[in-house]
Amino acid sequence: KHIPVFGIHCRTTNRTIIHIADTKERASLFPFLFDHAQEGSLIYSDKASMYVNSRNNESHIEGLNMDYNHLWVNHTFEFVNNLFQDIHINNIERKWRSLKNFISHTKRGGMTPEILQPYIDSFLLYLSTNKDFYFDILFHIFSVLSNN
Q1: Is 56 helix (H, G, I), strand (E, B) or coil?
Q2: Local confidence band at 61 (pLDDT 50, 70, 90 cut-offs)
């Protein structure tokens, strides 16, 4: 079973937030997005149907009449907008690839949200800390556990 996971990467702070969602529908994703993106933010996405109406090429985000600007790239044709190089989502796409590598393919079978969440939490800790500090913490934990 596929578990919908939604992520936000802030280009200003370089912070990443990853959330296990109920569904891939706007009703599930947008509240999370708006809880974490300041009003007035510029939001970049791909052209997935949850973000953009493909029939009229209009943003569902901007259609909510909130104070957000939304730009997207159509991955059918390109991964970085040819005219405006800032329009891409390569940062979050790289995080997805890294998260998948963080969870080996042998562990992904039979995954449930309860099993996945600790992996996401560990991955986000790994991203947000100095790598030596992260390994020092793990070394300390293993040392304490082996002495008990």
Answers
A1: coil
A2: very high
